[in-house]
Amino acid sequence: MHAGYVGPGYREGAESRAGPQLRGIYGIVDVDAVSDAVVFADALVGAGIRVLQYRAKAGVDRLVLEALCRCAHARGARLLVNDDLEAALRADGWHAGQEDLAGRDLAELRAALGERLFGISCGTPEEARAAEAAGADYVGTGPFAATSSKADAGTPIGAAGLRGVVAVTSLPVVAVGGIDGANIAAVAATGAAMAAVISALAYARDPAAAARDLVRRWPARTP
């Protein structure tokens, strides 16, 4: 794979970049939470999850990235990279936090990514509007509920806060933070396109079974 690589979901245009895959469960592969990122990722895509994010706060491992790409593409899934733009250019997209965008030209970032997916974390409706204007393919927002997966996640926004973001953007909204089988229906009821899940999968006794359960619980259509 190389800087010009485009993943299995390639079609022209922003709407096509998002496509039908940006719906359902979004699996986060956090290397600090699992013993073997590739085995874990394989369990998730085998259970029907079609979007993965590689999260490695201590730094992306090139060999792990390549293995995760192979794992995802073998099942027709997409792999995005959190934070690290250069690594994301070797995968199917980049997920950026607001801090990753500070002082950067968003038009240049969008151009650099080409047809790769571009997701932006947004804590407010205003940030979601700005993300859409910048050419993002989806926005991530939360935390939906209390979470221990991210120390600086902030106060939970709940269903009302999530609806507020969904209401102001035409982009798919990915809810994140404290999401599990007990509240997945409440997340879907807000109109969010996807639910990003970390702990409920990473700390499950059987991640594949947990993933299948969440995939099954997500409705075929959301409001």
**Structural class label:** alpha/beta
What's the shape? globular
Q: How much strand?
A: 15-25%
Q: In whole angstroms, how far apart are the ends?
A: 38 Å
Helical fraction equals 25-40%
**CATH architecture descriptor:** Alpha-Beta Barrel
Cα Rg: 16 Å
* Number of strand segments: 8
The overall pLDDT average reads: 90
Order of helices and strands: HEHEHEHEHHEHEHEHEHH
Q: List the quaternary state of the chains.
A: single chain
Strand order of the largest sheet: 1-2-3-4-5-6-7-8
Largest sheet: 8 strands, parallel, barrel
Q: What would you say this structure looks like, in words?
A:
This protein has 11 helices and 8 strands. The protein has 223 residues and is α/β, with parallel strands linked by helices. The chain is globular. Helix 2 (37-46) runs parallel beside helix 11. Strands 1-2-3-4-5-6-7-8 form an 8-stranded parallel barrel, surrounded by 5 helices. Strand 5 (117-121), helix 7 and strand 6 (138-141) form a beta-alpha-beta unit. The protein is 37% helix and 17% strand. It has a single domain, classed as TIM Barrel.
List the helices and strands and how they pair.
Blueprint: H1 14-18, E1 24-30, H2 37-46, E2 51-55, H3 62-74, E3 78-82, H4 85-88, E4 93-96, H5 98-101, H6 106-113, E5 117-121, H7 125-133, E6 138-141, H8 158-166, E7 173-176, H9 184-188, E8 194-197, H10 199-202, H11 207-217
Summarize this, please?
The chain is an alpha/beta fold and 223 residues long.
